[in-house]
Amino acid sequence: MNHAGEQMALVRAEAARGKARAADANPAASIPAQRQPVAKVIVDVEPAHLDRLWDYSVPAKLADAAQPGVRVRIRFGGQLVDGYLWERAEQTDFAGRLAPLHSVVSPEPVLTPEIGKLARAVADAYAGTVSDVLRLAIPPRHARTEKAAPRPPVSGPLAAYDPQPWKYYTNGPELLAALAAGQSPRAVWAALPGIGPLATALPGGGAIGPDWSRALATAVHATLTSGRSALIVVPDGRDVSRMDAALVDLLGAGRHVALTADLGAGERYSRWLAAKRGEVRCVVGTRAAMFVPLPELGLVALWDDGDSSLADRAAPYPHVREVLTIRAHQSGAAALIGGYTVTAEGAQLVARRWARPVAAPRAVVREHAPMIRTVDPDRDTARDAGAAIARIPALAWRVARDGLQRGPVLVQVPRTGYLPALACVRCRESAHCAHCHGALALAGAADSARCRWCGKIAEHWRCDRCGANRFRARATGAARSAEELGRAFPGVTVRLSRGGAILTEIGPEPALIVATPGAEPVAAGGFAAAVLLDGDLLLGVPTLRAAEQALRRWLAAAALVRPAADGGVVAIAAEPSAAPVQALVRWDPAAFARRELADRAELGYPPAARIAELTAPYSALDEFMTALALPEDAEILGPTPVSNGGDPGEQQHRVLIRCARTGGRKLAEALTATQGVRSARKAPAHVRIRIDPADLA
Question: What is the pTM of this model?
Answer without folding.
Answer: 0.86
